[in-house]
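pipeline/complex-builder :: batch 7 item 3
reading input block
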Amino acid sequence: MSSHGHGGSQSSGGGSTLLGYIGIDTIIEQMRKKTMKTGFDFNIMVVGHSGLGKSTLVNTLFKSQVSRKSAGWARDEKIPKTVDIKSVSHVIEEGGVKMKLTIVDTPGFGDQINNDNCWEPISKHINEQYEKFLKEEVNITRKKRIPDTRVHCCLYFISPTGHSLRQLDVEFMKRLSHSVNIIPVIAKSDTMTVEEKQEFKQRVRKELEMNGIEFYPQKEFDDDMEDKSDNDKIREAMPFAVVGSDKEYQVNGKRVLGRKTAWGIVEVENPNHCEFAQLRDFLIRSHLQDLKEVTHNIHYETYRARRLNENGGLHPICDTQDSNL
Amino acid sequence: LDGNTGDKEYVGFATLPNQVHRKSVKKGFDFTLMVAGESGLGKSTLVNSLFLTDLYKDRKLLNAEERITQTVEITKHTVDIEEKGVKLKLTIVDTPGFGDAIDNTECWKSVADYIDQQFEQYFRDESGLNRKNIQDNRVHCCLYFISPFGHGLRPLDVEFMKALHEKVNIVPVLAKADTLTPTEVQKKKIKIREEIEQYGIKIYQFPDCDSDEDEEFKQQDLELKESIPFAVIGSNTVVEAKGKRVRGRLYPWGIVEVENSAHCDFVKLRNMLVRTHMQDLKDVTRETHYENYRAQCIQSMTRMVVKERNRNKLTRESGTDFPIPMGPAVSESETEKLIREKDEEVQHFLHL
């Protein structure tokens, strides 16, 4: 049986010289309808030592109480010896789009006296999600939509010391930037003046560069010139110095989210006060899908390739056999 | 993407569908359409009419003698079409020679083999190490052309559709419908639908409408389901009808307009294929036909490996030792080859 192609791809010159309109562009509408029906998953992890406002920030980002604020460690409560991994999921809806949002919290990170290897439970959790997905993919009867619990984004909270990154910050980001998308943010930035903020940011960026830490959006994954120019602008502005709040105040006749101090109200969504709005637009309104795609096409594929090369290969799981993964 | 809307409740992830489709527009889409049916039923003309191209301009038509010696071929034509910024890579798979011989026994086999080959290629790519640029050549839809000159389905039609209905989405089409009067078309459609059900042929099913769709959409959907098989006419030529230039066929008794819904179902077919169901056709191919193939493939491979291990156990107990090859990530067909080689070795030894 022969199989040969004729003429390769001959362009038909678009619809302009031909009579009529075929309707190919409607496929976008068809896809859109389908994705609206199935909904989206998004999994975000927050890492940083306690008291940096992680939960508040997440609640502010998604304008709902999706993360429970911890009250810190009570005096007689023992700080857990290892970092805990706590996942909470919520389904939120906006404009007909349903999103299952999962926040993965990491209480205990950086809180011990000796914080050696405190990144290990986090790394393990991330790899476990890749493993779960891989097992589903390799199954004989596969689900139509494999449930995606992989971490799409890791928000790393940098303490606003005003000096530089801490050892722990560097260690964590160095080790994990190759298996997950890391977005560093400067927490509680209302403790710094505008100049202090600028200087701190510069220093942090230099340190990140010196240590070879590729945070998201990674330069090597820019698809084309358009992406590169958009992402360059974002990379220049990172890490975003943010403030979170779930309290509202009246400012100039409008109700805004903010923090009330004796000397004024810090408005969370005011770009002159902090970079929260920039972070939100970047994370949710423009790069949400890209975060998922980089996780799936790059981080997950890297994990998968590594697994395929160990143990003499991956065998599809059959009902009667135990998996030898 | 507006920045601070100041609206309390607006987070902004309602833009997600736009983010998804922005990337798809950049990447472009692909679609593989197969046309099958015996020669002379207007397959090439219909394809040209559907996609407003001329894919077959260099084709040479064979005469009867040349046709006798020809076996069923599988040919592929690819064309890139762009409309309103959306790029489509369209592949048409043709089956010249199908049903043209005197003895057409199992002439659908090469077609079935082709479809399986694309599945196998995809399976191998998907299971491999580098999955960055997998080419999807799987057949998303097969237009099967039924002759208007018979009394409904003929035995070859039934055999073909039954051989392929679990491998590809089959959309039956009543060819050259301008040789029939409207009444004849109706009668034939009813007969063919009955026979499809009678023989247990599983043609492509249009998904049911959501309850929240508007009435007009639901009505269109109903009409679509009742139009199977689509009675089509194709034309490569433009004629003048009522002062307009249309694609059509000029007869002494009148002009048949391809895009006139009163004349034929061409518009319904095109809308279904391109404007409403293209994505669903791809989804069903991916989620049902391909998954079935993959599951069968894995199961038969597992059976072979188990059989080989058991056979090796026997030979080991009789005093010989053949290690099972366990190399790093060998592709599936390499494993099969290794198994076959070992099998031959064992057989040879047993016969010494």
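note: The mean pLDDT of chain B is 81.
queue -> next item
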